[in-house]
What we know:
Blueprint: E1 16-21, E2 24-29, H1 39-53, E3 60-65, E4 69-71, H2 76-81, H3 90-108, E5 114-118, E6 121-123, H4 125-132, E7 135-139, E8 143-145, H5 156-163, H6 168-177, E9 181-182, H7 183-189, E10 194-196, H8 198-213, H9 217-231, H10 235-250, H11 253-264
Parallel strand pairs: 2-3, 3-5, 4-6, 5-7, 6-8, 7-10
Antiparallel strand pairs: 1-2, 8-9
Helix pairs in contact: 1-3, 3-4, 4-5, 9-10
Amino acid sequence: xxxxLAIKPAAVEGPVVAQLDKGVLRLTxxxxxxxxxxxxxxxxxxxxxxxxxxxxxxxxIVLSAAGKVFCAGHDLKEMTARRTDADHGKAxxxxxxxxxxxxxxxxxRHPVPVIAEVDGLATAAGxxxxxxxxxxxxxxxxTFCTPGVNIGLFCSTPxxxxxxxxxxxxxxxxxxxGETIDAATAKEFGLVNRVVPREYLNQIVTKYAQTIxxxxxxxxxxxxxxxxxxxxxxLADAYAYTGRIMVxxxxxxxxxxxxxxxxxKRKPEWKDE
Length: 273
């Protein structure tokens, strides 16, 4: 990796700020002080993800946050206020968790890779957000937890993403104790890919994103979709499915170009087809 220079992220205003540069779309949560996932924030983030699906200029998405907290999870004040509804908030709670499920699946099913840039606390649905991303890079100061058990609300929906990223024992440890883990432990558990100094976090994530953005978008899209599809299959079905995907990939123009460039010892020229 090239020389890293310390830089500071630009100041932003909420609830979600979108900035596109050289194929990398940065979506910044800016809902201070906790960047909580209110219905409005989840709707805004989901809308940005949907817009990015139709924009061929977007090749990678980086999900970051402004302030000292990456994301404190659902807006508990917003949810608690609805207990005065006639149904004691049941319909609103169902709407909130459905919106969250839609958002998390939008990240997993998105045709381009999504990288979480984590600095500060990621808790409950905020941790779910990190776990739903394809890659996660954290600063040394980042912390993570699923503390629902401490307040009488087990983190059942965050558990879905968490248990698909870390071992069952590690997931249950976090879910049952509600204790906070540091970035190094999160890396050990498999929740994040790398832990880096805070002053270099933004630039290191950008370099990762730009590296991925330089690949054939068709091939990356094919690979991401296949990765999550085969993960839900049995072994034989997974091999049969990915074998078909490899055949289709081999017939793509970019595979022909890439293999030809490798054999000819030259740089490939992607057409994303």
